[in-house]
Amino acid sequence: LLCPCLIYGAYIFLPFDAPLLPTVSARLVYTLRCATFATFPIVLGMIVSGISRLCSSALEPFGELHREVEIHRTYVSQSVHLFILYFFNMAVLATYLPQELLKLIPLLTGLFAISRLIFWMSYAIGRSFRAFGFSMTFLPLLAMLLWNLYGMFVLEPENLLS
């Protein structure tokens, strides 16, 4: 329930609009530019993972990892997988959205980045706390996927393969 409320509140109250994007290629470039900001938590996780691996007391570099190192490695791996899903869903979503709703692209990007950071912090606290951050990442992805399928099969079935 929190994700739709956050997106709606940000859509209404944040004072910016998406630029005029009349072509599909312009929308895809806009989506690509927004998606670069969603990589910030992943790059930060890679840096912290490397630092924690250097600072761990493991004598064998390919041996068993400590919990501190494993947390960051797992976070980066899961974040990369979710980012790939996020990016492809966002690219398809940008082609179906009307111009006045393109403001959702940077808002969903911000939600993805913030939710990955929340997941990372809660995962470091304890594995039982990570469900909140994961649901803030996964449920908007699921909503985008359902909207994309609806747009492809119901709104524009004649353009499905073109």
TrEMBL record:
The chain crosses the membrane at residues 37-59, 79-97, 104-125, 131-155. This is TMM79 protein. Signal peptide: none annotated. PANTHER family: TRANSMEMBRANE PROTEIN 79. GO terms for biological process: regulated exocytosis. Keywords: Membrane, Transmembrane, Transmembrane helix. The gene is Tmem79. One of its GO terms (cellular component) is trans-Golgi network membrane.
